[in-house]
UniProtKB/TrEMBL annotation:
Name of the protein in its database record: DUF547 domain-containing protein
Keyword Signal applies: yes
Signal peptide from the UniProt entry: 1-25
Taxonomy of the source species: Bacteria, Pseudomonadati, Pseudomonadota, Gammaproteobacteria, Vibrionales
DUF547 domain residues: 94-205
Family matches, as Pfam families: DUF547
Keyword flag Signal: yes
InterPro entries, per database record: DUF547 (IPR006869)
Organism the protein comes from: Veronia pacifica
Sequence intervals crossing the membrane: none
Annotated keywords: Signal
Length: 270
């Protein structure tokens, strides 16, 4: 291999690594004002029955995980999932009250994520999706709602996070990975989303993938590093949030080292 070719190879690999690092940097909460509207007098109820039916058929609990049986999804059920997504995109969520909106956006995010996996299955990780220099599909256009093209990052970081300012949102939207908070077995609704968020927060924080003391070191999910601003913007505030849900007495008053980790393997039931 010539020196010129070696130099080119090193530059190319460095560029890929640099782009991956930038892509992996967690997006900030950045409000898209267009979506920050609601009609609190609205009594319209959005049906999420089709999504619930799919969860009942294909989501299974195994240890600390809920796993999706992607390989067994029938063509009919795959079409049902697309029909459900289409039914949501035909609505204008701004005409709904805020409680209906929250369930709308969280379920849409999760349903689109599952559809992306199904459309590209088999694969080992959602990170394999997206373009050459992408870290996953989160910046890809996935749906259009009232004429606005949306990415998964738009739904999470420009709608859900800045409008509701609820750190528990991280526990109910799922990135199809083992390290992620579980895909909720219940479709969110206006009436159950508070309970689902609470249950999901407690489940994740009391799982090894969420919080795990290891001697003098505390291993935390990387979501507490990537989205520290949502949990109070410093490790002390993050630990206070964790302690409010943790059943482990070793967490109380933690002052040792903290390490972050994440498992990007697919949340698949084989």
């Amino acid at each position: 291999m010539s020196k010129t070719w070696r130099l080119f190879t090193h530059i190319f690999l460095f560029a890929i690594a640099l782009v991956s690092m930038v892509a992996h940097a967690a997006p900030k909460s950045d409000l898209w004002p267009f979506w920050n509207q609601s009609n609190e007098a609205s009594t319209v109820t959005v049906s999420h029955d089709k999504w619930q039916q799919l969860l009942d058929r294909y989501l299974v609990k195994e240890g600390q995980h809920t796993l999706f049986r992607y390989s067994t999804v029938s063509q009919q059920d795959n079409a049902q999932l697309q029909d459900y997504i289409n039914s949501l995109t035909l609505l204008d969520p701004r005409t709904l009250n805020k409680a209906q909106q929250y369930a709308y956006w969280a379920n849409l995010y999760n349903a689109v994520t599952v559809k992306l996996i199904l459309d590209n299955y088999p694969l080992k990780s959602i990170k394999k999706l997206g373009g050459l220099f992408s870290f996953g599909p989160w910046d890809d256009d996935v749906v259009s709602v009232v004429g606005k093209t949306l990415t998964l990052n738009d739904i999470e970081h420009r709608i859900l996070r800045p409008i509701w300012n609820d750190p528990r949102t991280h526990y109910v939207i799922n990135c199809a990975s083992l390290g992620c908070p579980n895909l909720p077995p219940q479709a969110l609704t206006a009436s159950n989303s508070e309970q689902v968020r609470e249950v999901a927060a407690q489940a994740f924080i009391n799982s090894q993938k969420g919080v795990m003391p290891e001697g003098k070191q505390l291993e935390l999910s990387s979501i507490y590093e990537w989205f520290a601003s949502d949990f109070g913007n410093n490790e002390k505030a993050v630990l206070e949030h964790i302690q409010s849900y943790s059943k482990n007495p070793d967490i109380a008053g933690w002052s040792g080292k903290i390490k972050y980790r994440y498992d990007w393997n697919l949340n698949e039931k084989k």
